[in-house]
Design a protein that fits this description.
The protein has strands at about 10-15, 25-30, 30-35, 40-45, 55-60, 65, 75-80, 90, 105, 115-120. By secondary structure, the chain is mostly beta strands. It is globular.
């Protein structure tokens, strides 16, 4: 299924070379890097590839396309995977870091690492299940 509402997009500076469709956090003033540590607080998802130091389009609300670290079922809450630079993982499978913030909800099912699926972003939510 195709989703038309990409959501709110802001332009920030890439703190690293960033692939499209990865979860990022604010690593410095107006600068984003891949969310990879348990102290990363995600700000959004990259809309496109960006070289380090270049402008980077970041989806901060609405629906974003995200790369998955492993299989995810539609309807599952997702967080970022600390072992896969900015990819997402179902919160239920993130046992090593169960306190990671929820990014949003998967709108489609993915079966393979690297698949890209739409995710309804839920900024600021941190649900424990």
């Amino acid at each position: 299924m195709s989703y038309q509402d990409q959501g709110k997009v802001v332009s920030l500076v890439a703190g690293d070379t960033l692939a499209a469709n990865v979860v990022v956090y604010l690593s410095a003033a107006n600068t984003v890097s891949p969310a990879i540590t348990d102290t990363s607080i995600p700000i959004g998802v990259t809309a496109d590839y960006a070289d380090s130091g270049a402008a980077c389009s970041v989806v901060i609300s609405g629906i974003a396309r995200c790369k998955v670290a492993e299989s995810i079922t539609a309807g599952q809450l997702v967080s970022f995977a600390t072992d896969a630079a900015g990819f997402i993982r179902a919160r239920a499978n993130n046992t090593a870091n169960s306190a990671l913030p929820t990014i949003g909800m998967a709108l489609e099912t993915a079966s393979t690492s690297g698949d890209i699926i739409p995710v309804l972003l839920m900024p600021g939510i941190n649900l424990q299940r």
